[in-house]
Amino acid sequence: MSHASLPRPTGPAPACACPSADAPPPTTAHGGERDGTAGRFGPTHALILLITFLGLGCGLVLAGIELRTVFALLGGCGTIGAATLTAAGGGRRLMTVLVETAVRSGAGK
Question: Does any domain span residue 100?
């Protein structure tokens, strides 16, 4: 195995284009802080998930999987998705409600 040397630039290295930690955070045109809505779960996301779940359910039923199993699978996927969104969004109150509902449902109350 040979060890070929890599070409190195002869001049000084270019400066990093990364924003500095000392730089002020980006602002909107009105001088306020960004609204932060880019990462939030919105109606478009809900519509995409609804279409995906309907398509997945139809595909599984057409593949011959029992309807009860399809509902259990989609319910589990929905529960995992809701828990993930809640945990990522910092919704501790909503997470508490979901856990309490699941425990009560399991206990038969």
Answer: yes
Question: Domain tally for the chain?
Answer: 1
pLDDT in tens, the chain (109 residues): 567 776 776 777 666 666 665 665 555 555 554 555 556 667 888 788 889 888 999 999 999 999 999 999 998 888 888 778 777 776 777 777 778 888 888 776 5
Instruction: State residue 33 phi and psi, 5-degree precision.
Output: -80, 165
Find the domain containing 68 and state its range: 41-107
Say if 51 falls within a structural domain.
yes
CA-closest candidate to residue 105, choices 73, 79, 71: 79
Task: Answer whether residue 62 is part of any domain.
Answer: yes
